Model the fold of this input.
Amino acid sequence: MANLDNDMFNAQFPVDETRLEEACWDGYKQVGMKEKNGKMVPNCVPVNENDLYEGEFCSACLAEYIKEHANLMMEAEYQGRKVKLGKPMQGDVKKFKVYVKDPKTGNVKKVNFGDKSMRIKKSNPGRRKNFRARHNCDNPGPRTKARYWSCRKW
Done:
């Protein structure tokens, strides 16, 4: 009986396939369907004018390229020697140091942070909570500042 009801409904209200294809705005194209609020709706993405024409790159190709060349992107030169970017290590002046690329200047910058004479006791919930509140770790600031890296350690 349920199939008969569906057939009668579909006969009364036919689905216009061209309307489904035109569901996206101008400048957008449909790439499959997605679920939204329990309904299947067209997945509309912006149309890129030079979609795979100039360099013939796809997202999977780009991901593979990044994996292969990750070492080159994570290394830089600081005062004539190769250093790893964004990896905290044992410091010389302070307890820790990390090399980062400054987005404003494009130069590699050394960020020193931490007190050599103090221990990080982040396993103690009370100390952890107080440190994070005292240093406003919910908004740690840019990667080029010691507060960002200190908050990240805690």
The helical segments are 2-12, 17-21, 59-68, 70-74, 125-134, 146-153. Residues 140 and 148 are 5 Å apart (CA to CA). DSSP finds six helices and seven strands in the chain.
